[in-house]
């Protein structure tokens, strides 16, 4: 019973309390770029989730085999392998989604959510817990993308998943499908997530320099710039 409760906690933490986009502020580049519509948001979210779950499982299974000094390159190779598989499947069966995501599909390889979970969780936990963590974080990432995509498509194009929702009398605000609109919606959602976190006694989502980076322990740039120097103090 305790194990089930713990597994449930590992899954749900990625949905709200540790949402990778709205709480940990990770993966902002693909979030802003692919959340212009519901279809592209779902496509990116599902592709990243598959890669995240599969890479977490393999990295966790090999955590005692991979030498510590080469763990980051090993993680990247594993992640790149799964990204290649997902990309080929999307190109073969979902060419429309492949066209929507463009370069951001292969760039899942360097998505800091996936590499961050590999370093911070999968390399330290069992296969089962790592798989559940990957599913939870992937669902949280997809949910954040879907929420942003729905808002931006509705306000910017007057439609949801390609179906017209707003009447013709209400002109769409095209700025919401552009970069400024993406930043605006992103900021509003983070503010709402912070408010919900405060009510549950959780700290606000904020950028914390090197301390928030899962690669800080192996980064040679720590302490070489102003942000790192302040963090080192």
Describe the overall structure.
- This protein has 233 residues and is mostly helical.
- 61% of the residues lie in helices and 2% in strands.
- The chain has nine helices and two strands.
- The chain has helices at 2-12, 28-34, 38-61, 71-93, 95-101, 112-122, 127-157, 179-199, 226-232, and strands at residues 159-160, 163-164.
- The protein has a two-stranded antiparallel ribbon with strand order 1-2.
- The radius of gyration is 19 Å and the shape is globular.
Record the SSE blueprint.
Elements: H1 2-12, H2 28-34, H3 38-61, H4 71-93, H5 95-101, H6 112-122, H7 127-157, E1 159-160, E2 163-164, H8 179-199, H9 226-232
Helix pairs in contact: 1-7, 3-4, 3-5, 3-6, 3-7, 4-5, 4-6, 6-7, 7-8
Q: Per the principal axes of the C-alpha atoms, what is the gross shape?
A: globular
Largest sheet, described in full? 2 strands, antiparallel
Strand order within the widest sheet? 1-2
CA distance, first residue to last residue = 44 Å
Radius of gyration: 19 Å
Count of alpha/pi helices: 9
Strand and helix order: HHHHHHHEEHH
User: Which stretches are low in confidence, meaning pLDDT under 50 for 5 or more residues running?
Assistant: 220-233
Tell me the structural class: mainly alpha
Instruction: Give a count of the beta strands, DSSP E runs of length 2 or more.
Output: 2
Mean pLDDT: 85
């Amino acid at each position: 019973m305790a194990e089930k409760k713990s597994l449930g906690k590992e899954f749900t933490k990625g949905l709200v309390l540790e949402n990778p986009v709205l709480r940990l502020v990770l993966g902002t580049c693909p979030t802003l770029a692919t959340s212009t519509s519901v279809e592209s948001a779902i496509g990116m979210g599902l592709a990243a989730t598959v890669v995240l779950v599969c890479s977490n499982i393999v990295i966790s299974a090999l955590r005692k085999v991979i030498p510590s000094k080469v763990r980051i390159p090993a993680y990247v190779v594993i992640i790149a392998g799964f990204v290649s598989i997902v990309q080929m499947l999307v190109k073969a069966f979902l060419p429309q989604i492949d066209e929507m995501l463009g370069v951001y599909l292969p760039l899942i390889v360097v998505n800091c959510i996936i590499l961050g979970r590999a370093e911070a969780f999968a390399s330290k936990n069992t296969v089962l817990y790592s798989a559940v963590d990957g599913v939870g974080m992937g669902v949280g990432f997809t949910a954040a993308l879907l929420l942003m995509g729905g808002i931006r498509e509705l306000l910017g194009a007057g439609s949801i998943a390609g179906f017209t929702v707003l009447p013709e009398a209400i002109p769409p605000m095209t700025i919401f499908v552009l970069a400024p609109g993406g930043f605006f919606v992103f900021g509003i959602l983070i503010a709402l997530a912070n408010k919900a976190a405060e009510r549950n006694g959780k700290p606000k989502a904020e950028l914390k320099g090197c301390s928030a980076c899962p690669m800080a322990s192996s980064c040679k740039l720590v302490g070489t710039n102003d942000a790192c120097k302040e963090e080192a103090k």
